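Look over this record as teaching material.
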Amino acid sequence: MLIGAHISPSDPLATAEAIGADCVQVFLGNPQSWKKPAPRDDAAALRAAELPIYVHAPYLVNVASAESRIRIPSRKILQQTCDAAAEIGAAAVIVHGGTVTGDEDVAEGFGRWRKALQQLDSDVPVLIENTAGGDNSVARQVESIRQLWDTIGDLDPGFCVDTCHSWSAGLDVVDAVAAFAEIAGGIDLVHCNDSRDEQGSSRDRHETLTKGQIPDDRLLEAVRLADAPVICETPGDTVADDIAWLRDNL
């Protein structure tokens, strides 16, 4: 099982070696900006490296939104992120499920997701990630994710499960993995994060492994059950310890 972390994009290969990561995740641009990712001088070295590199799309991306000023730029920056990810030979691009607008039913977002994936031209797999909070979240609860996959599953998206997000949505982290794997045909990536907050809080605050609210045994069982590469999105000053703890206990 590959175990790694979300890290600074400045020197992924050196950082991975320093923290003992088998794989890494990076942003290729400002996660709070619509600006196109800039070309990287080290693109050839990253493509040639054996280290799997995952790319997280900007947080602003919300292809499920009814608002064209959000939905259309979201499609554009997702395409640009996938293009930039291909340039470095990335393993996949991870994107949040997003939210619908106002009091809309979450089902309104499913067709928008389908249109976004139909328009996307990517050589890099796209993994949709479950999200933590809000009743308008398209990919928060099991049933809405099932309905989303009923709409887009034939377009072959992948799935990234975040343990903190599952917990914050009120789900048991092991049961969530089992349900999402059944819906999506498997788990492609695990974001293994503890949570600062109680189950069902709807808050997305990651914590160092063993220091948060998610029981250690459930967190480990969720990772085992997912049987996929693992990225820790935990505080940077302890992430090497998180990687080591997972290796020692899985």
Q: What stands out?
A: The beta strands are 3-6, 24-26, 53-56, 92-96, 126-129, 158-162, 189-191, 194-195, 206-207, 230-232. The mean pLDDT is 97. The longest strand covers residues 92-96.
